[in-house]
Amino acid sequence: MQRKVLAILLLLSLALGAYAQKKAQKPDEDKPIRISTELVQVDAVVTDKNGQIVRDLTKDDFDIYESGKKQVVSFFEFVDASRKKAGEATPVESPPAGGAEDVSETDVRRIFAFVIDDLTIRNEDLFYVREMLTKYVNEQMASDDLVAIVRTVGGRGLLQQFTTNKQLLLRAISLLTPSSHPIGANNPPLSGDVSGRDTRPVGASPTPIADTGSEGGFAIDTSVNDLFNPLDDTVQLSRAIMTLGTAGFVIDSMGQLPGRKSLILVSGGLLLTSPQTSTSGTDIGNLLFKLTDKATRSGVAVHTMDIRGLSANAGVASFTDTPAKSAIPTDLASLSGSSINPRTDPLARPFGKGPDEKMLGRNTLQDQLGLRALASATGGIAVMNKNNFADGLSHIVEISQGYYVLAYTPLDTNFDGKFRKVEIKLKRGGLKVYSRKGYLAKEEPKLESAVTKEHQLLAAIRSPLARRDIRVQAMVNYKATQPRQGAIDIHLLVDPKTLKLDETDGKHQTSFDVAGFVFDEFGEMRGGFSETINASLTPEEFRRVSQGGLTYSANTSLPSGIYQIRIAVRDNKTGRTGTVSRYLEVPDLTKGRFWASSLMISAARPEDTGTNETLAMLADRQISRTRDLRFAVAIYNAKIKDGKSQVRAQMSISQDGRIIYTDTDETVKAASEGQLLKIGQLGLSRVKPGRYTLTVVITDPLTDKKYQTITRTTDFLVLD
User: In angstroms, rounded to a whole number, what is the distance separating the alpha carbons of residues 670 and 166?
Assistant: First the structure.
């Protein structure tokens, strides 16, 4: 075997990766919107008066107009994002429960990216953000939803990537706590005004503030003339630039993901225009315009939410939804600093009725315009002037259940880069359409293919979706070696049927690369491994490998922290790849936290109840009914009272979410000084073949209630 270091270890941006795909030759609901002189593809959500998705429309129910001219619809399809596509079956060898975070393109149904604008959200409102997102993850998130939670300035790399792992998302939500930033909304005004608004007249000289240097990754010029009150127009423009920049980065990462995606921008207000402009002459209106075009080309609907809610006023009994009072200003070109043309640009349109301004509290109609415009132009929902945020998010999730894909060949093939308005009309009355308002008439840039082996591995590792051209299974185990150190064992199993094997001189030969990368919670790479495997198998070895798979093992040692391990396998003959990823936590045991190792499993002879004569189980966790299943978990930092611990453990077996066997709850005996070890052995001779889940619940009543229960689980497959 030849060992080498891959050049792709440099500059891996894993927060949100791009997923490169080949350009479709025909309209495909799993590809982003296509814009060319040959085809313009759009998507639309249709709801009834109760906000429910309408699924029974036909092509004849739709009329599409581009720049006022009716177009001929050449392709039409309804995509049910809540179900598998017609004819799509679940593989016989479905991925084990231990690999639930590895979701492929064919698995994912809905994609949500939450952008938390912590530059404009005040500390007291973060509670409502956490409450809303926690409810979504616990009650509404499906197992095949791909979700990311991204902060404008206060995020961490590992916690800001797309994942199906609910525990990782809940951790990201728990860390949505106040973060200091020089231009953040939580910086107090310098004057005596406490209303949360800059009371200086428009155009007045900015008030200088103290030297803050650089903080939170945002460089601040320390010259007095360039420092402003955190509530003035220049600071609000800077906030908008950073917020829209973050949203644009997320949209870019979503561009090659399948289907119609949803970005939910949770904000404390976003001005549409500003008297101030950036040093490049950019104003917020132009930034919004560019962002909407990017969202259109990426197939992303941007939903916006003003998390400030409403204020209670005397004589008002309820403020969940406020009555309409007056139309919001709609001629954006007439607002100071805007270069938007209301005759040609999609943002210059009416946004309907506004709320009672007496109930807006800290809000103003002006700083909601940007949020309303962004949602309207991209086919999203603007959740404004509500205090029931979970209800608003539920509506966003509901309309993500299904959408229509329509395509047409534009009558005007002169793509001059100008904006073209697209309008979808329905012949059936009483329905509402959420669709994009148009596009810039320019060809889509061609995607560069990954030509080298290193680039192909890089693309596979960066993708938020698992690659399954090569079937790879993984088992990653942790156990403590030192109080602040953990030993990590990695076991891979590669299905040889998905590799290209050539027969030469009676032997089967194959060559593939294995590359693994370890990232900490800040997205920094903390190690890795790479190796080229050249195998030449005799007929007997080939027969054995065909049944059991090709194995690969690696081990490393990591300090305390939270990590993600990403592994890619590439066939050197075909270029096909397969990927897996796993999350793990190495605790700092010096802090006294009650903890346990991974749940280790092995196969033992039924007659052997000792600690020897076990056969290590591979990454597929398969075991014959002729063997017993032995399991073990090490327990750390158990509390002692009267010279003894009171740790108890209970084992259970479940299948398809239903518990079929529960062992007695018993005290865990000490195996060695300072460590407890829970060991058990299960007879399988009478067990029906199938996949089962083993769960061990460990409880220490003497420790902190917050940490006194630990659950360790793994799945295994019983064979005849």
Answer: 33
The one-letter code for the residue type at 423 is E
| CA dist., res. 607 & res. 628, Å (int) | 9
Alpha-carbon span 464 to 579, nearest angstrom: 10
For the residues 379-390, what does the mean pLDDT come to?
Answer: 84
What 8-state DSSP symbol labels residue 136? I
CB 198 within 8 A of CB 234: no
What gap in Å lies between CA 341 and CA 502, rounded to an integer? Answer: 63
- DSSP bridge partners of 567: 516, 580
Instruction: Tell me which amino acid residue 58 is.
Output: T
Cβ–Cβ < 8 Å for 157, 524: yes
Kindly tell me the number of DSSP H helices and DSSP E strands found in the chain.
8, 36
Q: What is the pLDDT of residues 60-110, one digit of tens each?
A: 999 999 999 999 999 999 998 876 544 443 333 333 333 445 667 777 888
Distance between CA atoms of residues 573 and 576, nearest Å? 8
Say if CB 256 and CB 19 are below 8 A apart. yes
| CATH class for the domain made up of 1-20+453-591 | mainly beta
232 and 196 in contact (C-beta within 8 Å)?
A: no
Helices 366-378 and 284-298: crossing angle in degrees, nearest 10, is 20
Torsion of CA 372, 378, 380, 383, to 10 degrees: -20
62-83 CB burial, b ≥16 within 10 A, e <16: bebebbeeebebebbebbebee
| The two structure tokens encoding residue 52 | 């429910």
DSSP codes of every residue in 329-378: P--GGGSTT----TTT-TTSS---B---GGG-TT--SHHHHHHHHHHHHH
C-alpha 291/C-alpha 248 separation (Å) is: 6
Interval 670-699: pLDDT, tens: 765 557 899 999 999 888 999 999 999 999
Quick check: 686 and 577 in contact, CB under 8 A?
no
**C-alpha 245, offset from chain centre:** 18
Q: Say if residues 115 and 265 touch (Cβ distance below 8 Å).
A: yes
- Supply the CATH classification number for the domain 593-720: 2.70.50.60
Q: Nearest to residue 235, comparing CAs of 266, 267, 198?
A: 198
CA distance 83 to 704: 43
Tokens 């090659």 label which residue?
A: 256
CATH 3.40.50 describes domain 108-187+207-400: yes
Residue 265, beta-bridge partner list: 115, 304
3-class SS of residue 560: coil
Interatomic CA distance for residues 295 and 289, integer angstroms: 10
| Residue-averaged pLDDT of the chain | 75
- Tell whether the model's pLDDT for residue 166 goes beyond 80: yes
